[in-house]
Design a protein that fits this description.
Number of helices of chain B: 12
Order of helices and strands of chain B: HHHHHHHHHHHH
CATH class of the largest domain in chain A: Alpha Beta
Oligomer: heterodimer
Number of domains of chain A: 2
Distance between the termini of chain A: 59 Å
Strand content of chain B: under 5%
Strand content of chain A: 15-25%
Number of strands of chain B: 0
Number of strands of chain A: 15
Radius of gyration of chain A: 24 Å
Helix content of chain B: over 70%
CATH superfamily of chain B: MetI-like
Shape of chain A: globular
Helix content of chain A: 40-55%
CATH topology of chain B: MetI-like fold
CATH architecture of chain B: Orthogonal Bundle
């Protein structure tokens, strides 16, 4: 009896171990229904709007929106495996270069013609283009915004320039209160200051720009603002300070607005202050959120994929997303709708997008987040020499970029 | 003949487990070694080629001054943490074994609690709940008694202490459980005899407790030493997470390798760095295992 039990247990173990190696169940296509899986990492409000819209394709096409917390790494692992990879994914444009080089993405123009893409805001299509090929169908875009708490800062007091902002910070930073806070040592946030000086973290062709004189000037200028901000620079601390009414103003993403409003804050949104030294506003990165199609799906489920994309191209999705989550639609037609035109957040993003810089989408950006983050930490938190640190960081970036090849 | 048959049966029964070990442990190592000799990276994802030891040549460049500093830090980190871990766990386990101790099971449950929480959650809770300079409990206490808030994770020394505290919080439950079990396995008659002979607590600990628990806790200490040596989560999440760096520049060999290789998306190169670290761990393991054997032979 014991021997029989051992055999059963051993067999179960072996089968369990090997079950992952075999083929997964075939794509469900019962009654002619094609299943399309879309990975995303978006907030529930966005996913709900998309899910409701995509359900209109039933029963011909069944779309599964699957939230993946580690979407980018998972795609690297399974992007080539049609059994494990999704058919499409919804994500920001900045990873396009990586996946295009890995040859897992299908050009969106294989499904939607270039002429049809003219209905989108030019900068969103530009952001979705890698090596002259468009790999993403833009849905909405986001930029950082200047936000302020009307309890402390009236609309008239909103600083128009960075020097006005500095004066406000000097006057109001005391007793645990801050005139202005931001994630000062995070590249995504500091990029606005660097771009405003016409410096760069990484150029569109993948060249690091950390030791450019303009970048160094930006870092030196930015530092005096950092001295009036809290030491901690991460998302939770900065946003909590604003939500808890301990910070009068901040630069943050539109995703913060719903929670801030829930906290009972009368939040105002204004244009980015103009940097006195250059006459250019703080110019944050712009991220374009859109749908990407994996090669396998484009080849094997072309018709279903096209139907999904065409549905997502309808302007009313842009409107619904704007209303649900303050997303700025990528489709130009949305900006003719009264509901969009009267949305303070969306229109502020549209204005900021005029001078915002699309995040580089080349693979080299992967190493720059870390190197630029270290540089900002050295300068802002460890008080190291700006020029020397920038030169060292540039060398490090060049070495790492070289290691990528 | 019967012995040979038995051996064959033993291998046959162990085969599924051995196969599992082969698939889960050996295969990934061999595959990593294979990848380390290719140019697999984001630009050669499907069309990668065998390039021999080229990646190892580049990987050895990672072993610069920064790597040596990280290695020194890793050794220091391992020694400090292991000494504290074993000493504190022994002390607490001894206290748990005091005769007629009331609510023993309650204490045990409380002490095991950190183990029940996912490490990632615990680390981030410590970071924001305790060490945060704006909202952390430590600074709130300091401010209550009139001191200025401290940036706990900003300097190397302070960050090292904070990381050690969190590591102890996470690792102590395991060590306490092991030592507690070992203490309970000692026959009480040894202590009774020693007490009749007038032995003090220190003498009983030195001549009875320690020699008797040593062989039982040794494997756990060795396993924990390795876990501590290749620590990544605590140091990275507390001080180096992208977007939440604190200013401290403390690196274990793994966090250092991560910043110098793994972010490049060059899997050949990263695998070569991993294999070098793997070889270092094997050497470390051989050295630490050789010593007790030698003593055992003597």
């Amino acid at each position: 009896m014991r021997r029989v039990l051992s055999v059963i247990l051993a067999a179960t173990l072996a089968i369990g171990a090997l079950s992952g190696c075999g083929k997964q169940s075939e794509e469900m296509e019962e009654n002619g229904t094609v299943t399309i899986t879309i990975w995303h990492d978006k907030e529930d409000a966005v996913a709900e709007v998309l899910q409701t819209k995509l359900e209109t394709l039933e029963p011909e096409i069944h779309v599964v929106l699957e939230k993946k917390s580690d979407l980018t790494e998972s795609l690297k692992m399974v992007g080539n495996d049609p059994k494990a990879a999704p058919d499409m994914y919804l994500f920001a444009h900045d990873k396009i270069g990586v996946y295009a080089e890995m040859e897992i993405l299908s050009p969106i123009t294989d499904i939607i013609s270039e002429q049809e893409l003219e209905q989108y805001v030019e900068s969103t299509v530009e952001a979705a283009t890698y090596k002259d090929t468009v790999y993403q169908l833009p849905i909405y875009y986001e930029t950082l915004l200047f936000m302020y708490n009307r309890l402390y800062m009236s609309d008239e007091e909103v600083p128009k320039t960075t020097e006005e902002l500095y004066a406000y910070m000097q006057e109001n930073t005391n007793g645990g209160h801050y005139g202005f806070v931001e994630q000062h040592s995070t590249p995504y946030y500091a990029a606005g200051w660097i771009n405003g000086f016409e410096g760069s973290i990484l150029s569109a062709d993948g060249t690091a720009g950390l030791d450019k004189p303009e970048t160094i000037a930006a870092l030196e200028y930015h530092k005096k603002f950092v001295e009036l901000m809290p030491g901690e620079t991460e998302y939770a601390t900065v946003n909590t300070l604003f939500k808890e009414k301990m910070a009068h103003s901040t630069i943050a993403g539109p995703w913060l607005i719903p929670t801030v409003r829930e906290s009972g804050i009368d939040v105002g949104i204004a244009a980015m202050p103009v940097i006195d030294e250059t006459g250019i506003p703080i110019s944050p990165y712009m991220g374009v959120q859109g749908v990407h199609v994996l090669k396998n799906a484009a080849e094997n489920k072309h018709e279903a994929v096209e139907k999904v994309l065409r549905l997502l191209m309808e302007p009313d999705i842009g409107l619904e997303l704007a209303q649900a989550s303050g997303c700025a639609p990528a489709n130009k037609a949305c900006y003719e709708m009264d509901e969009v035109l009267s949305d303070e957040v969306v229109m502020a993003m549209k204005e900021t997008a005029e001078y915002a810089v699309p995040m580089p989408n080349v693979p080299e950006m992967d190493v720059m987040w870390t190197v630029a983050g270290n540089l900002l930490t050295d300068i802002n938190m460890s008080d190291k020499d700006v020029t020397l640190s920038a030169q060292e960081a540039q060398q490090e970036a060049e070495k790492l970029i070289e290691s990528m090849r | 003949m019967k012995k040979g048959k038995n051996t064959l049966f033993a291998y046959a029964w162990s085969a599924p487990s051995l196969f599992l070990i082969l698939m889960i442990v050996i295969f990934p190592i061999l595959y990593t070694a294979y990848i380390s000799m290719t140019n697999m990276n984001v630009y050669h994802w499907n069309n990668y080629e065998f390039i021999g030891l080229e990646n190892y040549k580049d990987a050895l460049l990672v072993l610069d001054n920064g790597f040596i500093t990280a290695l020194f830090f890793t050794v220091l980190w391992t020694i400090v943490n292991m000494v504290l871990q074993v000493a504190i766990a022994f002390l607490l386990a001894t206290l748990l074994n005091i005769r007629k101790l009331k609510l023993r099971n309650v204490y045990k449950t409380l002490l095991i609690f950190p183990w029940a929480m996912p490490g990632y959650v615990s680390i981030l809770l410590w970071k924001t709940g305790m060490f945060n300079s704006q909202f952390g409990l430590l600074n709130q206490w300091l401010q209550k008694v009139g001191f200025e808030p401290v940036r706990w994770l900003n300097s190397n020394g302070m960050a090292f202490i904070c990381c050690t505290v969190v590591n102890l919080w996470l690792a102590l439950p395991f060590m306490i459980t092991i030592i507690d079990g070992a203490l309970q396995s000692i026959d009480k008659s040894y202590y009774e005899s020693a007490m009749l002979d007038g032995a003090t607590w220190l003498e009983r600990t030195r001549y009875i407790t320690l020699p008797m628990i040593k062989p039982i806790i040794a494997p756990s200490v060795i396993i924990t030493t390795f876990t501590t040596f290749k620590q990544f989560d605590i140091i990275y999440l507390l001080t180096q997470q992208v977007g939440a760096k604190t200013g401290a520049e403390i690196h274990t060999i793994l966090t250092y390798a991560y910043e110098k290789a793994f972010i490049t998306n060059n899997y050949g190169y990263s695998s070569a760095v991993s294999i070098i670290i793997f070889i270092m761990l094997i050497v470390f393991s051989s050295v630490s295992n050789a010593e007790p054997k030698k003593r055992g032979n003597n």
